[in-house]
Design a protein that fits this description.
The structure is a single chain. The protein has six helices and twelve strands. The chain is of the alpha/beta class. It is globular and about 60 Å long.
């Protein structure tokens, strides 16, 4: 059994360990939330066909959305993009930083899932939201799904994963997420990741990740400053529900922010 720790700021989980991602974070864990996000995307003023997924990671959200939308997946990690290309070969994949990427085209909607957790300063969050706005067509919508918001954060311990592939490999993790300083905008997640090879060899990796936890007011203010009409939580969907008064399928994320980009007068 080998024990290895990460260097501060370098996350092996998204680098040389990315091939373990489907075992550490199985795709089925995203299904309920993705169903709700699909309904939120469909609530845009314009019909949503093309979606930009900023910080798409291993493509585990995309796998549940690609049958309904044409997805372009952007991530900063080539290793995670390789994982996603195998899972979602029909999707376009692009490498880029969600703070600064400019693809030279726009989309009906933009999705920023929990990769936004790795944004830990207000200025960087502003850049991410501006990137989403730059790629969102008038009448479209941008969805942001952070794991943590300052007002509701509480220390947690737990674990997950447990996936096994065809070769017999197994991956799992335990975590403690806590706030070293409530005055700032980030929290700390300490992970112990256990990777068992098919031959029984076990490696245990310890990583400390810094994750954003911004206030609700900060989110809404930055969305408004970028040009969006901001919404949060249940208010993301119209009060009357979906067309016909139906309720959305799936489970609403614990934290959900949306920016609706106003349509032009011509309704473009």
């Amino acid at each position: 059994m080998a024990f290895m720790a990460s260097t501060e700021g370098e996350y092996r989980l998204y680098g040389d360990l990315a091939q373990w991602w489907p075992l550490i974070s199985p795709t089925q864990e995203y299904a309920d939330e993705a169903a709700y996000l699909a309904a939120a995307l469909d609530s845009a003023e314009r019909p949503v066909r093309e979606v930009l997924d900023l910080g798409s990671g291993g493509g585990h959200v995309a796998v549940h959305l690609k049958d309904r939308f044409s997805l372009t997946l952007l991530d900063i990690s080539q290793d995670m993009l390789q994982v996603s290309r195998r899972l979602n070969p029909e999707c376009e994949h692009r490498q880029g930083d969600m703070r600064t990427a400019r693809l030279g085209r726009t989309f009906d909607a933009v999705l920023v899932h929990d990769a936004v957790d790795y944004i830990t300063s207000t200025d960087d969050l502003r850049q991410v939201i501006e990137t989403a706005f730059a790629h969102c067509r008038p009448g479209g919508i941008a969805l942001f799904v952070p794991d943590y918001v300052k007002e509701t954060f509480h220390e947690l311990t737990g674990g997950g994963g447990g996936g096994t592939d065809g070769s017999g490999r197994h991956g799992s993790f335990v975590e403690r997420t806590w706030d070293p300083d409530p005055a700032d905008d980030w929290v700390q997640a300490d992970y112990e990741i256990t990777l068992r090879e098919a031959d029984g060899t076990v490696e245990v990796v310890h990583e400390t990740h810094r994750l954003g936890a911004f206030s609700r007011a900060a989110w809404l203010s930055l969305l408004r400053a970028a040009g969006f009409e901001p919404r949060a939580g249940p208010a993301v969907l119209p009060a009357a529900g979906l067309p016909g008064g139906t309720k959305p399928a799936g489970r609403m994320p614990d934290n959900l922010f949306a920016g609706r980009r106003p349509a032009t007068r011509q309704g473009a």
